[in-house]
Amino acid sequence: MWENGIDIYSVRVIRTRTNLYFGVGAIQYFADIADQLTARGITSVLVVTGRSSYKRTGAWEVVEKILNSRKISYALYDRVTPNPTTMQADEATALGKGIRAQAVIAIGGGSPIDTGKSAAILLRHPGKTARELFSQGFTPEGALPIVAVNLTHGTGTEVNRFAVLSIPETEQKPVIAFDCIYPTWSIDDPALMTGLSKEQTRFVSIDAVNHVIEAATSKSTNPLAVMLGKNTIELVVRYLPFAEKDPGDLNARYFLLYASMLGGLSFDNGLLHYTHALEHPLSALKPELSHGLGLACLLPAVVQAIYPQESFILADLLKPIAPDLEGKPEEAHEAGKAVQAWLNKCGVTQKLCDVGFRREDIDKLVDMTIKEPSLAGLLEQAPGYANATSVAAIYMNSFMPLV
């Protein structure tokens, strides 16, 4: 396997639209980033994090020491929760305004980084709110420079132009996509992820798999998105069992993180459709629901639904999971069950009925999916023709295991 020749301790700069420091020990290269901030005349930054992981992983100890050594002042917003809200982005922005922040440093998984991206826009647009931003009330003209210190191997947000926040009062969870929120610099250090629990490890890895299944089968897909998708699934299937067996296995974390990064690039190019469009209403209604678990509940039914239109691509993409698929449209149910079997093997057996939803909720879920403009935009990317009927069918087929 090609991975055997990789020195995971050799930190490399991977250049996409973001300058990404990747490898074990990459957090120490925050010093290089701080020097570049200083060279740009940046002396004040807003730091956006969750409640504890930024300290527990050791990331903050390194970042704070380097900021102080470079005489870069900061304000710390450390109240981002899973499924973050527009209110949190507004609070972070207000803190940044108080110190006249010139850049944003986000430390965490998708939630803190997406909140930090949002604050970076709002700090460039005084008087605007996060709810306006996520309700398409204005189109940003730019954002402050963003530094992303990533603490999970799932979202890919450290290398792409997307952000997601919930609007609790309207029960919406929209997505935005703007070039101005590509992080200028990012850090992917596998050593910061050894503290992820088994559940977190599974869920973030499942998120990466969902990204590429959707990106490779969307109406906007391209050969790059498909190729990145194949590599992502191969790596997740190969290395997830090692990370679950030994959370401190840096080799496994390295390649799961690399897979996640590839997944972020894949959907940055190919976009998303059904699974993410249908999951956002789930976690908007139940903020305690892990995004990755919501995706896992939906994925087998989504694969079954789209397989007839994308059988050749999916048969190739899913080879590590379902090697016997031949790319025939009539294999749709078999493909969905194969994905379900892989999820079960990973220890994820829950369906919508297990996470608190009832069949009576389907009409509301369909309505939320169809009427939210950003989610309707995702549905436009789905293979075939996505409508209320196809969305309802996927929700219905996700209540119980496929049989």
TrEMBL record:
Where would I find the Fe-containing alcohol dehydrogenase-like C-terminal domain in this sequence? 205-395
**This protein's superkingdom?**
Bacteria
Query: Which SUPFAM superfamilies does this entry report, sorted A to Z?
Result: Dehydroquinate synthase-like
Which InterPro entries does its entry note?
A: ADH_Fe/GldA, ADH_Fe_C, AdhA-like, Alcohol_dehydrogenase_Fe
Give the Gene Ontology MF terms in alphabetical order.
alcohol dehydrogenase (NAD+) activity; metal ion binding
Would I find Aminoacyl-tRNA synthetase among this entry's keywords?
no
Residue span(s) of domain Alcohol dehydrogenase iron-type/glycerol dehydrogenase GldA: 18-190
**Keyword line:** Oxidoreductase
Q: Which family does it belong to?
A: Belongs to the iron-containing alcohol dehydrogenase family.
Protein's UniProt name: Iron-containing alcohol dehydrogenase
